[in-house]
Amino acid sequence: MIRDITYQDYPKDPVTLSNLSSKFMRQAMFVPLSVSDNILEIAMADTEAYGTIDALKYAYNLDVDVCRGKAADILDAIERLYGAGSQSIETIIEEAGKGVYEITGGDDDDVDRLRDIASEAPIIRLVNRLIYNAVEIQASDIHFEPFENEFKVRYRIDGVLSDVESPPKRLQAAIISRVKIMSRLDIAERRLPQDGRIKLRIADKEIDFRVSTIPTLFGESLVMRILDRETLILDLKHIGFPDSVLDTYNNAISQPYGMILVTGPTGSGKTSTLYTTLAKINAPENKIITLEDPVEYQLRGINQIQVNPKIGLTFANGLRAIVRQDPDIILVGEIRDFETAEIAVQSALTGHLLFSTLHTNDSAGAITRLLDMGVENFLLSSTILGILAQRLVRVICQHCKTEIDPDQKLVQSLNMPSDEIKQMRFYQGMGCEECRNTGFKGRTGIFEYLRIDDDIRKKIINNSSADVIKKTAMQQGLVTLRQDGFHKVKSGITTIQEVLRVTLEI
Question: For residue 495, which of 381, 373, 346, 394 has the smallest C-alpha distance?
């Protein structure tokens, strides 16, 4: 009886058989699993392809044991074990460098030539390997950057850019064109920014890529944002919420109506926090609609809309339409202007729980930003429930974590009593293979939650500054971003340098 296998049953290392080509494996849709005791075990999509089985028996003088596998799993295993996934990036760049791929002009003949070379095997292997490597090490972005005398490739890992082995400058046009073809962009248009998407299957996972190009002095710069849904952690505690913030925040998101804002710069994890929040309050009795730019991850049971300003579907127009859809909970990706802010406040006033984001440095700054946009202070004080400011800090690698004596200037920045500091232990990652010698592996959030109580409402009515609002909140127990970061230093999760890197002075 033929055994069915899953993706986890495929080997981690290739089975070595002389003169076995990956092209033949793809055509015949099989991949070797193991060789032992004169038996070659293979996975096949069509277990009745007796010609292939007989050919393997004859070629290698082995008995062949056949298992049934999915075609997609087999192709993925072939690529991983025998294709670009099995070669080092240096080898692939060396192979690609043997071709003639340089493009200098910009006429139609060059466009046709670009399309041809971008479809050649060495360029395809090179681009696939760069993408595969980025996914494997859990990078969030791939940057392809043209300069005068070099073409750089960099990965953003745990929020920090790092160089990788870069292809020669003359492969620049071919590589950019290959990614543009994959994302269905116009390779003839090199003067205007373009945006596209790619969906790829890598290591048994469906992964989305958001692609953005922009013309620079020395060619097109291209960035691929990696959207791996499996890396999205839908658990507030797991993403770093301290217990004190968690209790208050959970109380706010359980309210029937009002507005909750999440603030922070780009890349500070605002979208992940909001998705996690929606997943927590998603229930059959709630209709949830989101309006995003763009939709990064698809959430089960939630209606998600992507804005499209080119056809007039802006945040403001979309929000007007959403309110007529009888929602209970609304997520607006970002409040960018007075029109969106006004409709958001009106929506919160009329019985909807509304979530949105703002780009401000701290929680109190969101209030003054909305007032500056033109929102009436009495309306804002009536609708806003809470404001969450957040940042992401890197987590010390657990495999090379070592206790250290930190620089005293850094210790002084903690602003903690000396007795408390003496009892603290400080840690640092020394760098190992597991963390790629960075000393960090993964990230966690640091948070500042401003609960809007009667005292804060009075400050809003009086048009108080962000500093005054923040001081009032701190007197009532507000834990600032930096203070929460230092609590995580105290717990041995991150370093003082990391907290100082992502936060402003108190």
Answer: 394
Q: Which residue has the tokens 């004080």?
A: 381
pLDDT, tens digit (0-9, with 9 covering 90-100), for 380-398:
999 999 999 999 999 999 9
What does the pLDDT look like over 283-304, one tens digit per residue?
Answer: 999 999 999 988 888 888 999 9
Judged by average pLDDT, the poorest of 79-83, 305-309, 417-421 is 79-83
Closest to 10 (Cα-Cα) out of 27, 24, 31: 31
Supply φ then ψ for residue 280, to 5 degrees: -70, -40
pTM here is 0.78
Burial of 497 (0-12, 13-18, 19+ CB in 10 A): middle
**Torsion angle (degrees, nearest 10) of CA 369, 373, 376, 377:** 10
What distance lies between CA 116 and its chain's CA centroid?
A: 32
Cis peptide before 265 (omega within 30 of 0): no
Tell me the two tokens of residue 285.
């009795």
Position 101, amino acid:
Y
- The single-letter code of the amino acid at 92 is I
Question: Which one-letter amino acid corresponds to residue 221?
Answer: S
Q: What angle do CA 388, 390, 393 make, to 5 degrees?
A: 160
DSSP, collapsed to helix, strand or coil, labels residue 119 as coil
